[in-house]
Amino acid sequence: MPQPPEHDWIEARLVGARPRAMAALLRYFRDLDLAEEAFQDACLRALKSWPKNGPPRDAEGWLIMVGRNAAIDHVRRQAKLTELPPEDAISDKGDVEPDLAERLDAADYRDDILRLLFVCCHPELPATQQVALALRIVSGLSVQEIARTFLVNERAMEQRITRAKARVAKAGVPFETPGPVERAERFAAVSAMIYLVFNEGYTDANPASERASLCGEAIRLARLMLRMFPSEPEMMGLLALMLLQHSRQGARFDETGVPILLDDQDRSLWNRSMIAEALAMIDKAMLHHQPGPYQIQAAIAALHARAGKPEDTDWAGIDQLYAALERRAPSPVVTLNRAVAIWKLKGPQAALDMIAPLSDALDGYFYFHGVRGTFLRQLGRNNEARDAFAAAVTLAGTAAEAAHIRNALDQLENCSTRQT
Amino acid sequence: MLYTLLCYNDEMVTSAWTKEEDAAVMARLDQVHRKWAGNFKPMLRLMPTSAATTLRKSENLVVDGPYAETKEQLLGFYVVDVDNLDQAHAIARELAVANPGGAYEIRPVMLYYPDGSAIDDAPAA
């Protein structure tokens, strides 16, 4: 049944209000299911009341209050203690709004939001459950939508989310107001979870797919966090990083879904307004003089974004930034990325030397073998290159990745035939 | 007579728009822009408030985020073309010396059409 047009703006308001309203309802009820039911109830009442009475000035406050009352009524009704008051008495915003606005001050909201996101990234939850739970609870995607995103059936996703909620409930919602150290820890966990949501979307070759829309959702969550915590340079860094990566979406894959390397991308397809916003965020973050891994990664992505042509890329700057990242957050993958900058600056032998010590740690990593094959091929060590590419093919996570490496193998075959 | 039309909306709502919804709004606005092309002067769309900083004039202090006080009212705005945020802040500080009291919110511009008619052109970077 087609909805009347006025429902479009109501839907948009409800989606926009959801994270903060859910966050406050979770504080009241300390239970995800109850908070969710309360929010659903409030939305149903909004769909009835708003077209008639117009939208409330403070939509979030309205939803929180109506949701809370509805849930309390629900509990009472089940207990058969009192009769349900007439609907109008609950949904009439009338004189309750100013009072409400006073009670929902900014400090409450901030910790509510942080708590709501934090319960979704409980350390006991595996990454996929964290992402699924955040999409259900914070973003309000339906189980069906999330199931389509992860390419699993609805029943399996329902179970996954139910299990995740049970674990969260068992661990207990951290209700108390966090201290500074705890707040910083929650912040780091939430940042990592937001980046997980982003990466789920980033791997999808089809920009119109449900999964690819997760990139936009992650960006929205980071914006929400920055609205609540405007002076967190790492959150600015994360937002900038995601915007820069997302800006290349239209250029990252060919029509058949095979990834296109950065050097070969049509840079006119990069989204300029996302890049501009990211560069502004990095500028702003740098005023704090508190560099961190997200800011550094954003700065690296920015150097790519600033280069109009691949040969204009500031590889020396990228090498320095990776070196800074290695010091702060050492990992074989960071060193592998740095080796690509070294390759551009000093050639394939220096790059190959740099990644030689990584072979144990990254033996199961697709990109390691792909990059190693590229260096070896350039050094003319074609047999070793072929082995490296063959190893990469077996480790490829997607058909498109495998196709990309097979291309490299084909090129290798072509040039060996020409040589012979 | 010159008037400014200051655009207000809930950012949580507008940032929840999909790319298609955003494009649809821009296309509908474009119709109006074209109809009144002779009347429109500079037009611009600001980046989200998350990109904003604010210079509090009395304390000469730059803080993150938009200017959110309701006691004061928006009295006007400048558009400055600068190399970076530092330079924008430097100009704002000089303005603050000349005109103390209140604050300047410094917010990057997302779309800019200097003469209001170059709707088909790519926006200036």
TrEMBL record, chain A:
InterPro entries named in the record: DUF6596, RNA_pol_sigma-70_dom, RNA_pol_sigma70_r2, RNA_pol_sigma70_r4_t2, RNA_pol_sigma_r2, RNA_pol_sigma_r3/r4-like, TPR-like_helical_dom_sf, WH-like_DNA-bd_sf
Signal peptide segment: none
Pfam family of the protein (one): Sigma70_r4_2
UniProt GO MF annotations: DNA binding; sigma factor activity
Stretches that traverse the bilayer: none
Domain RNA polymerase sigma factor 70 region 4 type: 117-167
The name this protein goes by in its record: RNA polymerase sigma-70 factor, ECF subfamily
Organism per entry: Novosphingobium mathurense
UniProtKB/TrEMBL annotation, chain B:
YCII-related domain sequence ranges: 1-110
Pfam families given in the database record: YCII
Domain of life: Bacteria
Regions that span the bilayer: none
Family: Belongs to the YciI family.
PANTHER family: BLL7171 PROTEIN, BLL7171 PROTEIN-RELATED
Protein name as catalogued: Uncharacterized conserved protein
Species assigned in the record: Novosphingobium mathurense
